[in-house]
Amino acid sequence: MTYFVDHLKKNIHRTRYAGDDCGFLQTPIEKREFTNSTAFVKQLEEQELYERCPHCQSVKMLVNND
Ligand SMILES: [Zn+2]
């Protein structure tokens, strides 16, 4: 599993599922980081209060039906 860390918004994406909904398009390249280290991601979550992006944690579900 590869993670995509947005250091600007403090979001953690899963590279495989990341898409337009994730809101990282305006994050500059130098604020983006790719990692496959679960320990690193966990550390960011617990110590830096990064949040896992809700848009790419699993296969997309149809939630916007209105
Ligand atoms: Zn995302």
Q: Can you walk through the features of this model?
A:
With 66 residues, the protein is of the alpha+beta class. The protein has one domain (3-56). Helices cover 15% and strands 21% of the residues. It contains one helix and four strands. A four-stranded mixed β-sheet has the order 3-1-2-4, with helices on one face. The longest helix has 10 residues, at 38-47. It starts with a strand and ends in a 14-residue tail after the last strand. 17% of the residues are buried. The structure holds zinc ion. Zinc ion binds at residues 13, 18, 22, 53, 55-56.
Q: Mind sketching the topology for me?
A:
Layout: E1 3-6, E2 11-14, E3 32-35, H1 38-47, E4 51-52
Parallel strand pairs: 2-4
Antiparallel strand pairs: 1-2, 1-3
Residues 13, 18, 22, 53, 55-56 line the site of zinc ion (ZN).
Proportion of residues in helical segments: 10-25%
| Number of β-strand runs | 4
Question: What characterizes the major β-sheet?
Answer: 4 strands, mixed
Low-confidence stretches: none
How does the overall form come out from the CA principal axes? globular
What ligand species are in this complex? Answer: zinc ion
User: For the largest beta sheet, what order do the strands appear in spatially?
Assistant: 3-1-2-4
Cα distance, first to last residue? 33 Å
In N-to-C order, the SSE pattern is: EEEHE
> What's the helix count?
1
- Beta-strand residue fraction: 15-25%
pLDDT averaged over residues: 89
The class by helix and strand makeup works out as alpha+beta
- Structural domains: how many: 1
The rounded Rg comes to 12 Å
